[in-house]
Amino acid sequence: MTIGNLKLYDIFRKDLHLSDDKALEVVNALDDHYEKKSSAKIEQLANKGELLAVKNELKQDIHTLATRMDLMATKEELSEVKNELKQEIHTLATRMDLMATKEELSAVKTGLTLDIQKVKSELTMDIQKVKSELSGTIQDVKAELINTIHKSVHYAAIAQFIAIVAALLGIIRYCLVR
Predict the structure, then answer these.
(1) What is the DSSP string of 86-127?
(2) In the predicted model, is pLDDT for residue 163 greater than 90?
(3) What average pLDDT does the segment 139-154 reach?
(4) What is the pLDDT of residues 33-74, one digit of tens each?
(5) How far does Cα 39 stand from its chain's mean position?
(6) How many CB atoms lie under 10 A from the CB of residue 171?
(7) Is the pTM value of this prediction over 0.85?
(8) CA 76, CA 120: separation in Å to the nearest integer?
(9) Is the pLDDT confidence value at 26 over 70?
């Protein structure tokens, strides 16, 4: 018997004047009842397997987002495109035996520079947006898991308290009727 059970046994024996057998029977019945109720509540809590499933799901989502970010152009790729465009322009000018003026080349260079800066700016904003969305999603899921666990523990404690009070009321009623 636990200390709590011994205290209940003493209350039933001394205060409620039950026989040894009856007091022991009531304590054992209360213990069995409480054990069944608490094991039922424990079964409702998330186990490690369920938490691991959620964790793996989150990892998969993170991997998907990382893959999307890998598909975006990098500075090196933009530089390569810029160089390819310069080569094509130079090839076309050579083939046509046209000599572009410095002003025309400057205008093309300025246009390309502006286009590259625009693409770079858009990529930077897209990357920041994806990062913030991913961070927000992770925080939301984490907060929801913590909240769910806290609620489960809270409800289990309330249910256990109600079960104990109900059992005590039943015992008191039984003793009063008798």
Answers:
(1) HHHHHHHHHHTT----HHHHHHHHHHHHHHHHHHHHHHHHHH
(2) yes
(3) 92
(4) 888 888 777 777 767 788 788 889 888 988 887 777 666 667
(5) 26
(6) 19
(7) no
(8) 11
(9) yes
Both tokens of 57, joined, read 């799901």
Number of CB atoms found within 10 A of residue 18's CB: 21
What does the alpha-carbon distance between residue 118 and residue 82 come to, in Å, rounded to a whole number? 13
pLDDT above 80 for 19: yes
Count Cβ atoms within 10 A of the Cβ of residue 12 and give its class: 0-12 exposed, 13-18 middle, 19 or more buried. buried
| Helix, strand, coil % over all residues of the chain, rounded to 5 | 90, 0, 10
- Pull the structure tokens for residue 145: 């898991």
Under 8 Å between Cβ of 164 and 34: yes
In the block, residue with structure tokens 């205008």: 107
Amino acid found at 108? V
Tokens of 9: 């046994």
Contacts for 1 with CB less than 8 Å, ≥ 6 apart:
9, 27
